Each structure stands twice: as structure tokens, then as C-alpha cells.
Amino acid sequence: MQPVETTLYSLSDEPPTPSGEIDRREGERHMTLYRVGSILVEDRRELCLIKNISAGGMMIRLYCSVAIGTSVIVELKSGQPIQGKVGWVRDQNAGVTFEQPIDVIDVLSNSMEGPRPRMPRIETNCQATIREGANVFRVIACDISQGGIKIRTEADLPIGSDIVVSLPGLPAQAGIACWCSNGHAGIAFNRLMPLGELVTWLQVQRDLHRAAG
């Protein structure tokens, strides 16, 4: 199974950069199921894809020409406009820096209301432990959703193998390795993590990130 690329939520206060996005996924094959949004440029409204979003900005895929420095309004959903300015453009991707930081946890919670094709992924960067049979590995958790986790690891996890993921501050999560490629692996949890439990953990991670500067 190939990894599926969806909109990535980050707890960072910094807006996304073009190099970070490209370097992280270079050489990997992904399906794409990004969140659809709209962008208001001057007097016209265009569709866009939200590739990732942090408290300070977002990376979007454009289907129109927008110059660096242009003031824009991005809507993630009806009635949820965010004002910002285009900071960079590369190919079809653009970075938007928000005029005011947003609450990513609030945006995440709103995005999970009503029908949705996939659960949002939230970027994280913390140590974790996984157990596969008798083998125990220390790994880095890259992003997490209610349904699974992406990790960075040198371990070659057999597809379909039973995995137990331990994250600080959360109960151990049993799951199955569903893909492994280029030093990363995806693990699908056997049971959905309760939303309240995940949001509380994310709030703690956000506070720790800010305290660390």
C-alpha cells in the first residue's frame, strides 16, 4: 500500500516553507486527498487545495496566478475566512502568512464536523516507542490522526504486522503496519482514538512546543 497524502495540520507558530515540504516528501509516492478551500484575490474567488496549515500560515496549491505580496483571504469552509499575504510562490504552490495567528486546534475541531472523506492529520515531532513482536524500536512520530500515525524509523516493518505504539501521555495504541518507505512508516490503529483524548494531548504538545521556544 502506498502512503496517502492529506492536509497536514501543524502546531508550529511558523508558516510553512517551500523547502521543508519538498525535502520531506522527495522520492516518496503518495496519493493526494488534500482539503479543498477557496481563495479570494482582489474581486475573484478561486478554488485551492490546502496542503498544510500552522498557526502562522499555510501552504496551498493554486489554480490561478497570484503575485508575491498579494493580500488574500482563504476560506477553509463557509464562514471561516482567514486573512493573509502571499509570501512565496513555487510552481503551483504558494505560502500564505496569516495577518493574525490562528488556533489550529479550533480549526481542526471545526474541520471534523459533519461528513469528511478522511480524518485530518496533525503534525507532531516527539519520541515514541513501537513494538513489533519481540522487537522494540525508538522512533519519531511525524504526524497523527484518530486513525493512525506516521513515524520516522530505520526499522523495516513487515506490511500487515501487528504494532503497538506508545506515545508519552497517551495509552498504548495497537495497530497494523500499512506501508513502509524511505525511512518512514504508516501504522493504522485498530480502534479510533477518542477525539477528546487526542485534542487534549495535542494541546499539551502545543504548550510544550511553545515553552521550548
TrEMBL record:
Residues 1-10 have a biased composition (Polar residues). It holds the Pfam family PilZ. Residues 23-105, 118-190 form the PilZ domain. It comes from the Bacteria. Residues 1-26 are annotated as: Disordered. SUPFAM superfamilies: PilZ domain-like. This is PilZ domain-containing protein. It comes from Sphingomonas caseinilyticus.
